[in-house]
C-alpha cells in the first residue's frame, strides 16, 4: 500500500492534524484513486460495514464523499439492489464474513456491480487473501485490492477511539476469560497501530508495568493489560516496518499505554469546563445538541446542531471554565451591540443601565439582518444559560467543592457524613459520584464497613453500591477474588495516611473556583516529555533491556519516588481558565495565531492511549500541554466516556445479566 504524498510524521513537512490526515487519506488516497480509465467520470457505490461507516463519518461529511463521485452509500450486511452498470468501492474490515459477502456480490454471471475497488481498514489475514484469489470469476472484476490501514474513529483534531466500547467490561470484569481478553487487546492493538500507519510515525512504545510488589505476589490478568496491549501494538508496528512502503525505520515519536487504574477519579468527578459540562449535564447524544429557535409562525422550532470544530465559538470556549465561558459570551454580545448602530438605537429606547446576557440576546434576535452573524452566538448563550440553571438547581457548586476537597485532602469522612445529612435533596447520581470519589481516595476504608455505612446514609440502591465496590476492579494489582470489599491496592502501606494529600506549589494559584482538579495524565505526559518517566514503572518495548512484564514499583519507592499510578496531585494553575488578556491558546485570536505556524516548529508527537475509556478533562489536558510543551499530544482510548456512561459501565463489571439500558443513570432520576 502506498501512503499519502504529504509527509505527515512529526519529522517535517506541512503540518496536518490527525482528523485532516484521516480525511485526506479516505477521500483522496481511497475514493479519488478509483477514478481511472473508463471509471474516471462515472458515479460509484460506496459499500461499508458498521465500523468503517463510523470511521468515514468521523472524518468526512457526506458532501465530501459525493464530491469524490459517490452517489450511493450501502451497508454490506443488508440486502442491496443490483447495479450492474456501476462500479463499487468496498471499504470494509478484513473479516471472514465481509470477504464471503463481497465474493458473493461479485461472483457468477450476474454480479451486483460492474467492477469492485476493495479497501480493507487493517491488514488482511493471508487466508482471506488466498480465498479471494481462488475465486477466478471475481478476480477479473476487481479494480483494486488494498490495505488502507485506517481503523480508528477521530473524535477531535488530537483524539481518537478504537471500536472497543465494551473494553471496560471485557477486560476489567469479574469473569476472567483469557481468550476474550486476548482477542479484545489484539483487535485494539491492530487499530492503534493503524494510527501510526496513517501518520507515518514509528513510536517508542512505553507502557504501565505490572504493579506486583515482589516475585511471590501473583500478577492478575488485569494488571497485565497495558503490557499485553503494548506487545500487540509492537507486533503490528514490526510488520509495518518490514512491509509498508515509506514507513520510518527509526523512532519518530513516543507512545505511552495506560489503563483506567492510572486515575479512577477523572471519569467521575465534575469537570467544570464548557465542553465537559455540556456532555455531563445536557443529555446530549454524541456531539448533537437540540435547541429551540424562533420561527416565522411564532411557535419555537427544534433545531439540531453539532458542537464540533467547524464552530469557531465552540472551538474557543470548549476548554474554558464555565465561569470564563459565561464572561466571554457576555463580552461578545456586548461588543456586537456596541459595534452595531441599529442595536444601539434599540438599546437607546430602553431605560439605560447594563443589560444582562439574556436581554442582549433578545436584542440581537430582533435584528433579522444580522441573524446569520448572531446565530451561533445565541446558540451558545442558550447552552450556557441551561448549564448555569442546572448548576443552581442541583447545588453542584457545593457538591463540586466537596469532591475537590476530598481529592486534595482538605475533607474527610466527617465532611462527607455532614454533607449527606444536611443535603437530603442531592440527586442519586451526585451522591453516588461523591462516594465513588471517596472510595478512590480512601481505599483503606473498604477494610471495615465505613463505605457500606456511608452508602446506607445516602440511601443508595444495591446497583449503585455495586458501582462503588467495582472500582476495586480497576486497580490492576488487587485480587478481587479474596473478598467482596477488598482494599484497592496492595501498596497502601507506603502512602496510606497521605493517600489524598495534594500540596500547593509555590507561586501557583487557581484562576477560577472549582478548577483545582487535573487528571493524572497531565503529570505523566510532562514527565515523559522531560525524559523523567521512571523506566521501572513505564518500560519501553524498543529497549532490549526492558523485561516483558516490567519491574515492580519497589525500586521507585526505594529511591524516594512516588509510584506514578498513585502520584500525589499538587494544586496547579488553571492556565486554561485564565482571564482573556492572557494568551491561553484557546481564545479566537490565539487559535488563529497558533493553529498552523506553531505546529510546524513543534517537536516529536506524544501519543497517550488509555484502556477502559478516556475523559474530556484528559482530552483538554492534551490540547493544553501541546501549547505548553511545544509537542503535539494525541489522546487515544477504547472509548470517550462522560460520567453517566462510565458509571453505567462500572456497574456492568459484575452485572452480566443487565443491559446498558437497565442501568443508565440520568438527571431525570428521582431525587432521594
Low-confidence stretches: 1-7, 477-508, 546-594, 656-672
Helix content bin: 40-55%
Average per-residue pLDDT, rounded, comes to 81
Instruction: State the end-to-end distance.
Output: 59 Å
Q: Give a count of the beta strands, DSSP E runs of length 2 or more.
A: 13
Q: Let me know the largest β-sheet.
A: 6 strands, mixed
Structural class: alpha/beta
For the largest sheet, list the strands in their spatial order: 6-7-13-12-9-8
Shape: globular
Fraction in beta strands: 5-15%
Radius of gyration: 27 Å
In DSSP terms (H or I, runs of 4 or more residues), the helix count works out at 28
Organism: Coffea arabica (Arabian coffee)
Protein name: SNARE-interacting protein KEULE isoform X1
Family: Belongs to the STXBP/unc-18/SEC1 family.
Amino acid at each position: 500500500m502506498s501512503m499519502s504524498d504529504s509527509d505527515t510524521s512529526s519529522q517535517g513537512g506541512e503540518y496536518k492534524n490527525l482528523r485532516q490526515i484521516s480525511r485526506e487519506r479516505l477521500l483522496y488516497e481511497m475514493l479519488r484513486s478509483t477514478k481511472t480509465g473508463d471509471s474516471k467520470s462515472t458515479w460509484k457505490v460506496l459499500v461499508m460495514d458498521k465500523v468503517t461507516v463510523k470511521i468515514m463519518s468521523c472524518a468526512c461529511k457526506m458532501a465530501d464523499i459525493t464530491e469524490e463521485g459517490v452517489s450511493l452509500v450501502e451497508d454490506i450486511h443488508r440486502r442491496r439492489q443490483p447495479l450492474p452498470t456501476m462500479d463499487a468501492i468496498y471499504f470494509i474490515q478484513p473479516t471472514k464474513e465481509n470477504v464471503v459477502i463481497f465474493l458473493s456480490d461479485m461472483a457468477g454471471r450476474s454480479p451486483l456491480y460492474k467492477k469492485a475497488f476493495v479497501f480493507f481498514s487493517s491488514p488482511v489475514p493471508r487466508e482471506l487473501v488466498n480465498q479471494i484469489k481462488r475465486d477466478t470469476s471475481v478476480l477479473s472484476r476487481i479494480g483494486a485490492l488494498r490495505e488502507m490501514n485506517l481503523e480508528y474513529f477521530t473524535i477531535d483534531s488530537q483524539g481518537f477511539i478504537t471500536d472497543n466500547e465494551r473494553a471496560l467490561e471485557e477486560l476489567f470484569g469479574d469473569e476472567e476469560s483469557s481468550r476474550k481478553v486476548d482477542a479484545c487487546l489484539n483487535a485494539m492493538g491492530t487499530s492503534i497501530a493503524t494510527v501510526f500507519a496513517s501518520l507515518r510515525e514509528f513510536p517508542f512504545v512505553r507502557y504501565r508495568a505490572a504493579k506486583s510488589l515482589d516475585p511471590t505476589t501473583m500478577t492478575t490478568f488485569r494488571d497485565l493489560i497495558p503490557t499485553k496491549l503494548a506487545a500487540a501494538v509492537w507486533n503490528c508496528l514490526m510488520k509495518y516496518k518490514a512491509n509498508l512502503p515509506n514507513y520510518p525505520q527509526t523512532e519518530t515519536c513516543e507512545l505511552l499505554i495506560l489503563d483506567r487504574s492510572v486515575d479512577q477519579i477523572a471519569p467521575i468527578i465534575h469537570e467544570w469546563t464548557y465542553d465537559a459540562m455540556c456532555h455531563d449535564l445536557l443529555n446530549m447524544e454524541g456531539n448533537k445538541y437540540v435547541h429551540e429557535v424562533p420561527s416565522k409562525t411564532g411557535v419555537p422550532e427544534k433545531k439540531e446542531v453539532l458542537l464540533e470544530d467547524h464552530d469557531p465559538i465552540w472551538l474557543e470556549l470548549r476548554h474554558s471554565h464555565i465561569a470564563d465561558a459565561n464572561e466571554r459570551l457576555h463580552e461578545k454580545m456586548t461588543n456586537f451591540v456596541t459595534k452595531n448602530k441599529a442595536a444601539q438605537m434599540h438599546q437607546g429606547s430602553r431605560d439605560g443601565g447594563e443589560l444582562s446576557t439574556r436581554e442582549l440576546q433578545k436584542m440581537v434576535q430582533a435584528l433579522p439582518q444580522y441573524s446569520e452573524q448572531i446565530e451561533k452566538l445565541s446558540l451558545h448563550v442558550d447552552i450556557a444559560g441551561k448549564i448555569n440553571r442546572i448548576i443552581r438547581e442541583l447545588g453542584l457548586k457545593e457538591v463540586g467543592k466537596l469532591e475537590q476537597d476530598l481529592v486534595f485532602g482538605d475533607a474527610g469522612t466527617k465532611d462527607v457524613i455532614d454533607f449527606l445529612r444536611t443535603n437530603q435533596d442531592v440527586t442519586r447520581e451526585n451522591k453516588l459520584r461523591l462516594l465513588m470519589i471517596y472510595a478512590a481516595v480512601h481505599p483503606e476504608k473498604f477494610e471495615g464497613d465505613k463505605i457500606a455505612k456511608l452508602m446506607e446514609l445516602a440511601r443508595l440502591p444495591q446497583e449503585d453500591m455495586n458501582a462503588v465496590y467495582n472500582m476495586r476492579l480497576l486497580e490492576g494489582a488487587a485480587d478481587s477474588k479474596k473478598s467482596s470489599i477488598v482494599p484497592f491496592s496492595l501498596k497502601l502501606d507506603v502512602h496510606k495516611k497521605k493517600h489524598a494529600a495534594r500540596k500547593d506549589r509555590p507561586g501557583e494559584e487557581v484562576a477560577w473556583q472549582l478548577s483545582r482538579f487535573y487528571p493524572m495524565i497531565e503529570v505523566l505526559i510532562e514527565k515523559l516529555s522531560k525524559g523523567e518517566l521512571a523506566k521501572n514503572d513505564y518500560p519501553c518495548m524498543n529497549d532490549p533491556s526492558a523485561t516483558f512484564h516490567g519491574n515492580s514499583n519497589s525500586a521507585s519507592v526505594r529511591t524516594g519516588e512516588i509510584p506514578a499510578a498513585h502520584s500525589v496531585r499538587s494544586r496547579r494553575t488553571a492556565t486554561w481558565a485564565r482571564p482573556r488578556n492572557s494568551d491561553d491558546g484557546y481564545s479566537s485570536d490565539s487559535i488563529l495565531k497558533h493553529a498552523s505556524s506553531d505546529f510546524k516548529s513543534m517537536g516529536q508527537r506524544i501519543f497517550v492511549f488509555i484502556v477502559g475509556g478516556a475523559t474530556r478533562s484528559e482530552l483538554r489536558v492534551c490540547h493544553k500541554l501541546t501549547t505548553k510543551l511545544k509537542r503535539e499530544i494525541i489522546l487515544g482510548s477504547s472509548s470517550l466516556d462522560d460520567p453517566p456512561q462510565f458509571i453505567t459501565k462500572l456497574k456492568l463489571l459484575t452485572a452480566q445479566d443487565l443491559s446498558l439500558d437497565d442501568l443508565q443513570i440520568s438527571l431525570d432520576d428521582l431525587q432521594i
